[in-house]
């Protein structure tokens, strides 16, 4: 299946661009895709999944919906889905 992956801030730098089209096995879940991204992009290794769960304070959206409000890492994906990955954000005074 084909997915559109969108990366923001430091994850954009790690992926080499804002948007990447990528192929994954049919039936893949959000967790499957994030594990593959950690393996493929050095700048994401260990930053997406921690202790078998979504890393603290990152946001992952499937078609604009936060996966934590779906099935988390077990959220199923389908051909044509868009997965957006945001690193932790801090700031302000």
UniProtKB/TrEMBL annotation:
One Pfam family, short name: ThiS
Biological source species: Halorubrum laminariae
Protein name: Ubiquitin-like small modifier protein 1
């Amino acid at each position: 299946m084909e997915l559109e992956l969108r990366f923001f801030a430091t994850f954009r730098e790690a992926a080499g661009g804002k948007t990447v089209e990528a192929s994954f096995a049919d039936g893949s879940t959000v967790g499957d895709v994030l594990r593959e991204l950690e393996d493929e992009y050095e700048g994401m290794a260990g930053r997406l999944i921690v202790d078998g769960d979504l890393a603290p304070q990152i946001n992952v959206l499937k078609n604009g919906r936060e996966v934590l409000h779906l099935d988390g890492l077990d959220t199923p994906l389908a051909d044509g889905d868009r997965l957006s990955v945001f690193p932790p954000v801090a700031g302000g005074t």
